[in-house]
């Protein structure tokens, strides 16, 4: 497990306000309640300098359509929705994940298709890079993660997931402004970027689970 209390992590015992102005206008997917820990299983992506150069090109261009876009500061590919765990469930949940994921090997996927997403309640819009190769291995991982979620009677992942790495976000449903012409121009930037083929072929080496301010790592073999 990675150390708890990493910089920027909230103190789970602090009183939490739902004042959206404190976090860029984002709205919680579910209300905060003491003893509930927001939990998420994902593949972390460590951005290289060239990836950040591509990100800057994409976000700068997309801002000509939606000026409020903000670039993501960390990158990942989700294997679960954000679900709520009670504190005393965290240890058995992580133990079950570790057992189910122990047999998986490292693998590659390609994430090179620009796509626009909104969250379920349409309060945020995202630009992401969708996976075009490696979908089968990701579905196998999700199947095991779903099995753990079912043990704890928690929502499983989406039925037909569009696996992707989010690059930028904005408040509200602004998908209409980003799809069509803007999306085609962003795809042209990705296709024309010199390092694109190398950069966007990603080897996944570990799975992570974040629960509140606790991080757990599951290395792939």
UniProtKB/TrEMBL annotation:
Xref: SUPFAM superfamilies = LigT-like
Any keyword Ligase? no
What domain of life is recorded for the organism? Eukaryota
Which positions carry the signal peptide feature in this UniProt record? none
**Which keywords does the record carry?**
Hydrolase, Lyase, Nuclease, Nucleus
Region described as Disordered: 1-29
What this protein is called in its record is: U6 snRNA phosphodiesterase 1
InterPro entries for this protein: Cyclic_Pdiesterase, Usb1
Question: Might you report a single GO cellular component term?
Answer: nucleus
- Catalysed reactions listed for this entry: a 3'-end uridylyl-adenosine-RNA = a 3'-end 2',3'-cyclophospho-uridine-RNA + adenosine; a 3'-end uridylyl-uridine-RNA = a 3'-end 2',3'-cyclophospho-uridine-RNA + uridine
Q: Which organism is it from?
A: Hippolais icterina
Q: Name one GO biological process term.
A: U6 snRNA 3'-end processing
Q: Does the keyword Lyase apply?
A: yes
Question: How is the subunit organization of this protein annotated in UniProt?
Answer: Interacts with PLRG1, CDC5L and PRPF19.
MF (Gene Ontology): 3'-5'-RNA exonuclease activity; lyase activity
**PANTHER family, from UniProt?**
U6 SNRNA PHOSPHODIESTERASE 1
| Function according to Swiss-Prot or TrEMBL | 3'-5' RNA exonuclease that trims the 3' end of oligo(U) and oligo(A) tracts of the pre-U6 small nuclear RNA (snRNA) molecule, leading to the formation of a mature U6 snRNA 3' end-terminated with a 2',3'-cyclic phosphate. Participates in the U6 snRNA 3' end processing that prevents U6 snRNA degradation. In addition also removes uridines from the 3' end of U6atac snRNA and possibly the vault RNA VTRNA1-1.
């Amino acid at each position: 497990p990675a150390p708890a209390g990493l910089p920027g992590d909230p103190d789970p015992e602090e009183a939490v306000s739902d004042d959206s102005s404190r976090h860029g206008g984002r709205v919680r997917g579910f209300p905060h309640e003491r003893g509930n820990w927001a939990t998420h299983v994902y593949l972390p992506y460590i951005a290289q300098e060239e990836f950040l150069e591509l990100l800057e090109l994409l976000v700068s261009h997309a801002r000509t359509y939606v000026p409020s876009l903000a670039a993501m500061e960390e990158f990942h590919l989700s294997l679960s929705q954000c679900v709520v765990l009670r504190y005393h469930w965290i240890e058995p949940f992580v133990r079950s994940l570790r057992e189910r994921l122990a047999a998986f090997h490292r693998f590659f996927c390609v994430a090179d298709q620009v796509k626009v997403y909104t969250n379920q309640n349409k309060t945020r819009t995202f630009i992401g890079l969708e996976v075009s190769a490696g979908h089968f291995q990701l579905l196998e991982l999700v199947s095991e993660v779903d099995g753990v979620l079912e043990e704890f009677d928690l929502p499983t992942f989406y039925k037909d997931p569009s696996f992707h790495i989010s690059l930028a976000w904005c408040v509200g449903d602004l998908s209409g402004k980003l799809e069509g012409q803007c999306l085609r121009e962003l795809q042209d930037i990705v296709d024309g970027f010199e390092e694109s083929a190398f950069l966007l072929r990603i080897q996944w080496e570990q799975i992570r689970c974040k629960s509140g301010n606790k991080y757990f790592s599951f290395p792939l073999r």
